[in-house]
Design a protein that fits this description.
Structural class: alpha/beta
Radius of gyration: 18 Å
Order of helices and strands: HEEHEHEHHHH
Oligomer: single chain
Strand order of the largest sheet: 1-4-2-3
Shape: globular
Length: 220
């Protein structure tokens, strides 16, 4: 998703960070100054109409990416600056790890630890949500490591589309089943947000801890 009118505040990786050269190449941003694509506009409108009306909401964007591990990424993609709801993300991460102490599937991190991009739609929507008083919207991205799929089926390397998708039907179904636990957990977290979203001194403490963990220790 590189179609939003938002520019990264530092250098981005070639192509992956968004490009305006050609729509024939992946990660096309569109023509500068023109309106977003219909699909992008529709997504923004849906979130504003159905999620912004709630005091607390989350979105989970599921797609494949590089690597061997699955990541749950949170904003930002356009900057390495920490986003305002670090405390909530650390509390959610701790809650997941306490609920499933033996899991080895997910790494919860800000996307900017890996790379930054132009035109991220979730950054754009999240920044709009900050203008709403009494509303908290947290967009998450489930970045599924696709190298394991390629390792099991090397023929996928012959086509660009299959680099990021498990092509065999049984493997595709297995991947979908793998993440039901996470989706169920997030659904329950949204329903029960009043019992875990931090406030007051706890929120201040968690924000400091989160900054130390994700922006200091991870960069050492």
């Amino acid at each position: 998703m590189r179609n939003a009118p938002i520019d990264a505040d530092n250098r981005v990786p070639a192509l992956v960070g968004g490009q305006r050269f050609s729509r024939e190449l992946p990660w096309y941003r569109g023509v500068k100054g023109q309106a977003m694509e219909k699909e992008s506009t529709a997504l923004c409108q849906f979130v504003e109409q159905h999620l912004f009306s709630s005091p607390f909401s989350m979105a989970l964007d599921c797609h494949s990416g590089y690597g061997r591990k699955d990541h749950v990424w949170f904003p930002y993609a356009w900057t390495e600056k920490p986003f305002p709801h670090l405390a909530e993300m650390l509390k959610l991460t701790k809650l997941f790890n306490q609920t499933y102490p033996n899991h080895t599937i997910y790494e919860f991190e800000p996307q900017s630890l890996h790379y930054t991009t132009h035109g991220d739609l979730w950054d754009y929507i999240y920044l709009k949500s900050l203008k709403l008083e009494g509303r908290l919207f947290v967009p998450l991205t489930l970045e599924m490591g696709s190298w394991l799929w390629v390792k099991k089926n090397p023929r996928q390397l012959l086509r660009f589309f299959s680099l990021f998708n498990p092509m065999l039907p049984h493997r595709h179904q297995r991947i979908l089943r793998r993440h039901l636990l996470l989706i169920d957990f997030l659904s329950r977290a949204v329903q029960d947000y009043q019992n875990w979203v931090p406030t007051g001194k706890e929120r201040i403490k968690l924000a400091r801890e989160a900054y130390q963990h994700w922006y200091i220790e991870k960069n050492d």
